[in-house]
Amino acid sequence: MSFLKSKLATIFYHLMVWTVLFSFPYLLSSGQNQAIQAVIVFSWVPLSFYVLIFYTNYFVFIERFLFTKKTILFLASNAILIAFFIWVNNQVKDYFFHHIFIHKDNHDSFKPSRNLFIYIDILFFIVPVVFSIALKTTERWIKTEAERKEALTIKLESELQHLKYQLQPHFFFNSLNNIYSLVDIAPEQAKQTIHSLSKLMRYLLYQTNNEKVSLISEIQFITNYIELMKLRYTENTKIEYDFSILNNDLQVAPLLFISLIENAFKHGVSASQETEIIFKMKVEGNSIDFSTKNHNFPKTDSDKSGSGIGLQNMEKRLQLLYPEKHQFTAVVEDGFFVVNLILEI
Question: Which residues form a coiled coil (predicted)?
Fold first, then answer.
């Protein structure tokens, strides 16, 4: 339906342009018979030839010759076509001067020389060729650009879906590790953790299928996750979070902050030292400022838990979902790893 509407709109614009071009000479004439005859000979006849040249190029020559890089054949075809129409146009003018203008007024001296306007005729007959090339090239560029954007959209959707499928098993794997660590030392906590995990997985299964979720739902999810993680660690690990939001209407991509939180727990906890992990979120208008701060204990190459797949996925998602609408920084300051993410929703 949209294709049909586009075609009809194109036809309408073409008809409107030619109608205006054909109307101007008549409207500017005095309305006398001889003036109308002059309009026909000197305006409407050449314009009719312009129409034929324009659409011959628009529908045939440009597609078959110019776009297929047969430039010489394209120029030769147009040269023959233009020469033919110039000859026909001059025959019509000769007939007008000999049988109409001179017969009525007997003023042979008013007949202009044929060679006087030959170069001007050539230029005028080249104009529709140039316009047809410009229009056809523009339409082709617009079509190519639309196809490129459509292909890019499909590619982005595919990549996002792939990243989402990567993220959920990755999150589930980390959660199972937490539960495993509690089974022997705190079986009751392990049971509670499994119950909490079921809530988190319910969110993953039913909420994250949407393109956007409410920021409040996302905050509830990451809060539950942090509380789940707290069960795993001793008092040596101090965990704080402050998620104060003023705008309840904001929508964000699901699972956007969880990778940063996971990363803080991976690299911010030590079995022998006191550690601190802090999460903060501030919302001002449509801007979300999320940050993490944790002691920096980099994983060794042999420790696969520090592979960094979560952060990699998050950065890719940011590039795909919020291009030029996010700022992401990660620095080490005074033994702390500080990450800051600012989003413009």
Answer: none
Residue 278 scores a pLDDT above 90: yes
**Confidence (pTM):** 0.53
DSSP 254: T
How do the domains of the chain map onto residue ranges?
2-112, 167-344
**274 token code pair:** 């006191």
Which of these, 245, 235, 303, 309, lies nearest to 273 by C-alpha position? 235
The superfamily in CATH containing domain 167-344 is Histidine kinase-like ATPase, C-terminal domain (3.30.565.10)
Which of 86-100, 214-228, 262-276, 303-317 is the least confident region?
303-317
Three-state DSSP class for 61?
helix
Tell me if 282 sits within 8 A of 343, measured CB to CB: no
Alpha helix stretches (DSSP H) within the chain:
2-28, 33-39, 45-56, 71-96, 102-105, 118-183, 187-206, 215-230, 258-267, 309-321
Q: List Cα–Cα distances, 10 to 13, 15, 69, 121, 149, in angstroms.
A: 5, 9, 26, 29, 22
Whether residue 338 is predicted with pLDDT greater than 90 in this model: the reply is yes
SS3 307: coil
> Residue 310 — very low, low, confident or very high, per pLDDT cuts 50/70/90?
low
CA 81 to chain centre: 41
Checking phi first, is residue 124 left (phi over 0); if not, alpha (psi -120 to 50) or beta? alpha
105 has a pLDDT exceeding 60: no
How far is 81 from 86, CA to CA, in rounded Å? 9
Query: Distance (Å, rounded) from C-alpha 163 to C-alpha 64?
Result: 44
Whole-number Å distance between alpha carbons of 94 and 76: 27
State the pLDDT confidence band at 277, using cuts at 50, 70 and 90.
Answer: very high
pLDDT averaged over every residue in the chain = 80
- Looking at residue 278, the DSSP 8-state letter turns out to be E
pLDDT confidence tier of residue 293, bands split at 50, 70 and 90: very high
Token pair listed for 14: 């073409």
> Scanning the structure block, which residue is given the tokens 């071009």?
21
